Every structure is written in C-alpha cells, then in structure tokens.
Fold:
Amino acid sequence: MSGTLYVVATPIGNLEDITLRALRILQQVDLIAAEDTRHSRKLLNHFAITTTMVAFHEHNERDKTATLIEQLRGGKSIALISDAGTPTIADPGYRLISAVRAAGLPVAAVPGPSAIIAALSVAGLPTDSFQFLGFLPAKASARSKALEKLRGEQRTTVCYETPHRLLKAVTDIHDILGPECEVVVVRELTKIHEEVVRGPVREVLAEFSAREKVRGEIVLLLGAVPVVVSADNWRERLRERLAAGAETPKQSVKFIAKEFGVPSDDVYRYALALRNDE
Ligand code: SAM
Structure:
C-alpha cells in the first residue's frame, strides 16, 4: 500500500484556526515536509505534535521530490505544510503535487486558512468573480505594466504585498488607475493588529503616507477598475521611448511631459525608478 500526500493548511496568525483534522493528520503521518522546519517547530510544539519534519522549500523542491515520492511508494504518509496558510498558494509545493499525481499516488486536501480567502471575506468587495495576482512585481517597470493591464478589469483583484512596498504599490495604483479606484488594504489578519483600510485609493494613499512605518503581513485588493480614458498611458510611452534609445533620457522625459501634460518631476521620477530597476 502506498502512502498519501496530505496538503495541510495551517494558521495565518491565530493558532486557534488550525482544524481538528489538520491536528490529527499532522500527528498521524510518518513525516511532515515543512517549508521552514524551525518556523513550523513552534506550531508543532504548541500542539504537542512530535512527528519528524524534513525541510521542503523552493530551493530543494526538485531534489526532495524524488525522495518523497519513494517514501510514499514505500507506504509512508506525508503531510506538506508551509510557513502559514495553504501550501502551494504563493508557496512551494505544486511541482511535488504534480509529480506525485503523475506517479499515480494519492494526494488529499486538508483545507483551512488562506490569506486570499480570509482577506476577501472581510474586504467587502464582490467575490463572485476575482483574480489573484500573487505578489505585485518588485520592479517599478514590471509593476506599472501589471497595473496597466488592470484598466477596465471588472473582477475583484487580490494581491499579496510586503509592508515595505505597500506605499509604492498604492502610489502606482493611484497614478495609473486613477484616484477613485477602490482599494482595500487588509493587514495582520487574525492577529492582534488586524486592520482593514478601505476607500478610494487617494484616501488609502493619504492614510498610509501619514504613517511612520507600515508593518505586518498584507493583502491588497482592488475593486472594479474603470477604463481610464486619459493621457495616462504616458508611462508606457516613456518606457518605449527609453527602450528605443533614439534620444537621451532627458529628451524622452521632456517630450513625454510636454506631450501628455504631466509634471516633468513625475516623469523624471519614473524614469529614475526604471533606471534603478536595471
Ligand atoms: N500560502 C499562504 C496562504 O495561503 O495564505 C500565503 C503565503 S505568501 C508567501 C505570504 C503572504 O500572504 C504574506 O506576505 C501576505 O501578503 C499574505 N499573508 C499571510 N498571512 C497574512 C495575514 N495574517 N494577514 C494578511 N496577509 C497575510
């Protein structure tokens, strides 16, 4: 008899959110494959679970997969967990699951918390149809491109964001999708400082700009985005002109500022951010 790979969700903050089934499976399996064994040790200790753990993360996923499949074939049952929430959701694991399935071995879901779903449940935006983008790109040019694609998007959009990039992302949403775009920042779900800040992006931007520091874990959501019919394609045009290299960056900045009636300081700042990307 081969063993089963259980994909086990763990809490995203409050440890009481673990399910009874997750506790039983974690105790009963032969092995727990954990993204960070030191991190997960705290969870296991809290619930007095003594099962052996092995590290399974994005850097050893390929190497470890074959070993884990051999262990499943040999009849061992394995639980896959990540640092928090549901494994494989913006976390390692899908390659392992794909390989286990390809080997004809059983995979079972042990569902529970996930920051995407928890954030959607409290944001107050439509959830009948939504898209999840993972983390918005860190680089300014890639982030602008990702946001430009959202013009006219009618579904709710969900992204993960880091605290140190939140202000940049919200500023870009403001500049690219317009000041009225509805935004919800969901922070520290299920923890002491749980917070939901919702409103047109101009208000959310003012709120977070006034803070000395943003901390914690964040899900950023956008409501339906109007099709912005304005001259704010200037970022796209600037990128094209800079990439074409037919003029100096200074000339490109000057041209775009004049052509689109955008303050040259704004254009210059964006050109600088693009250069910092390189
Ligand atoms: N697999 C996880 C899940 O199902 O929620 C997500 C893993 S992803 C690497 C981690 C990101 O999820 C964080 O950077 C943050 O954006 C979001 N996140 C996790 N816990 C959160 C919480 N308690 N409150 C808000 N966002 C959270």
About this structure: The chain has a mean pLDDT of 94. The chain has eleven helices and ten strands.
